[in-house]
């Protein structure tokens, strides 16, 4: 029996058979495979003298200490990441706080992405689409950033990008509407409106 | 060495390689390489699911913009400017936008490896068949390593 969280709604699920299954809460599909992790690597050989045991596995020889909390770690627990060795508890803590760059789930820089889209919104003709995309992706990004540790700079960049996107989209909607209006007038054989036509004849 | 699975991102790409006793991830960001690995015999649970990816929509949107702009440039280069050129380019761009939306809906595959040292994710947007083959190889490697241990 394996206990996992549904990747879509985070509801706890119990899987007794490997393979595809449906979440009982949200109905989305996912696959679960359970294994028996063999905590054997780094184990002390039979009859050997253990001078310093691992904090998690007392039977294992320690190969060093956690650089954050100082507890002894065996080769099984030692987690080399970002040029330092951490114990599993410190790793989990830093991972959940989003302080490890290499394991951060938010691999996308929403601020930079929305800023680029907002600038592309001033691209001729297609800028309109980019502007709308900047707004949509910006809203999605702001929602995703709630889960990550707060970053004020990124949030400001997302809001700036969305503002640029809205402005660009509005400009190109006006320009395209005017071009469409002019082409319709030209097909009807009517002259396009001009300031000179509005002046009174002498 | 050839990667078993790869995924591009805005600054470079991720590569995953199935080695004899571990799966390793290499994040190539320009000249930087960030390395991480998970040993097969430390894996407790593997979770596989698919998720819609806004990045794929963005990529399709970029293609639509570049394609539409190229068509407009050709039109402007070889004939006088006419409003009908906008309509042709618009249809072309619209087709590319529909393709972008389809790739967004198709989504990416996420493989979550819950191991003793921590949780790692393998994310890729390969075709369903290629993704299934990779996951099957990964599961076989884990079973073999844990049976041997």
Account of the 3D structure:
The complex is a heterodimer of chains A (202) and B (149). By secondary structure, chain A is of the alpha+beta class. Chain A has helices spanning 88-96, 110-120, 127-145, 152-188, and strands spanning 2-5, 12-15, 19-22, 29-34, 62-65, 72-74, 79-81, 84-86. The radius of gyration of chain A is 30 Å and the shape is elongated. Chain B has 149 residues and is an alpha+beta fold. Helices cover 47% and strands 34% of the residues of chain B. Chain B has 3 helices and 7 strands, in the order βββββααββα. In chain B, a hairpin with a 3-residue loop joins strand 6 and strand 7. The relative contact order of chain B is 0.19. The chains are: A alpha+beta (202), B alpha+beta (149). Chains A and B meet through strand 4, helix 1, helix 2, helix 3 and helix 4 of A and strand 4, strand 5, helix 1, helix 2 and strand 6 of B.
List keywords for this structure.
heterodimer; A: alpha+beta; two-stranded antiparallel sheet; B: 149 residues; alpha+beta; four-stranded antiparallel sheet; three-stranded antiparallel sheet; 3 helices; elongated
């Amino acid at each position: 029996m394996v206990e996992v969280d549904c990747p879509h709604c985070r509801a706890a699920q119990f899987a007794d058979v490997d393979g595809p299954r449906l979440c009982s809460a949200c109905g989305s599909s996912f696959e679960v495979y359970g294994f028996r992790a063999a905590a054997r690597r780094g184990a002390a050989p039979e009859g050997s003298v253990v001078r310093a045991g691992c904090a998690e596995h007392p039977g294992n020889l320690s190969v060093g200490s956690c650089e954050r909390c100082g507890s002894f770690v065996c080769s099984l627990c030692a987690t080399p990441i970002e040029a330092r060795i951490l114990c599993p508890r410190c790793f989990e803590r830093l991972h959940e706080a989003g302080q490890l760059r290499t394991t951060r789930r938010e691999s996308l820089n929403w601020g930079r992405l929305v800023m680029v889209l907002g600038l592309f919104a001033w691209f001729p003709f297609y800028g309109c689409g980019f502007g709308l995309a900047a707004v949509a992706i910006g809203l999605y990004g702001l929602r995703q950033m709630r889960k990550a540790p707060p970053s004020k700079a990124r949030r400001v960049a997302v809001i700036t990008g969305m503002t640029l996107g809205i402005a660009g989209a509005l400009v190109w909607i006006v320009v395209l509407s005017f071009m469409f209006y002019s082409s319709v007038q030209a097909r009807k054989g009517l002259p396009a409106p001009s300031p000179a036509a509005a002046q009174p004849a002498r | 060495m050839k990667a078993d699975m790869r995924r591009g991102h805005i600054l470079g790409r991720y590569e995953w390689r199935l080695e004899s006793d571990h799966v390793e991830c290499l994040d190539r960001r320009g000249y930087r390489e960030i390395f991480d690995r998970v040993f097969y015999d430390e894996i407790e649970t593997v979770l596989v699911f698919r998720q819609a990816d806004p990045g794929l929509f963005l990529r399709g949107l970029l293609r639509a913009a570049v394609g539409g702009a190229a068509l407009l440039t050709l039109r402007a280069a070889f004939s006088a400017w006419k409003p009908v050129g906008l309509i042709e380019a618009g249809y072309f761009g619209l087709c590319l936008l529909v393709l972008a939306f389809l790739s967004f809906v198709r989504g990416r595959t996420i493989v979550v490896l819950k191991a003793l040292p921590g949780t790692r994710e393998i994310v890729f947007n390969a075709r369903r068949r290629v993704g299934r083959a990779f996951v099957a190889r990964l599961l076989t490697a884990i079973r073999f390593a844990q049976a041997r241990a």
